[in-house]
Specification:
Layout (H helix, E strand, L loop, with lengths): L1 H21 L7 H4 L13 H30 L1
């Protein structure tokens, strides 16, 4: 079980990094420092962006559950 949770944690961590990098910048953070802030503020979110948000949230929840599972296994093993 521990090996499964470790692999799940690694895979979901990599997926989260990838998905966060795929998101479009929404405003004045570090992305605007490097020229990412030139996009129109009136452009609405697309269906693909909404789906990316949902997948990112789901992946984050799986990541969190894997962390909890590893912690519980360490505590009670």
């Amino acid at each position: 079980m521990r090996m499964f949770l470790d692999i799940l944690l690694i895979v979901t961590s990599l997926l989260l990094v990838l998905m966060v990098l795929l998101h479009r910048a929404k405003g004045g953070g570090l992305s605007s420092l490097f020229g990412g802030g030139t996009q129109s503020a009136l452009s609405g979110s697309t269906v693909a962006e909404k789906n990316l948000n949902r997948i990112t949230i789901f992946t984050g929840l799986v990541w969190f559950i894997a962390i909890l599972g590893i912690g519980l296994e360490i505590k009670f093993a």
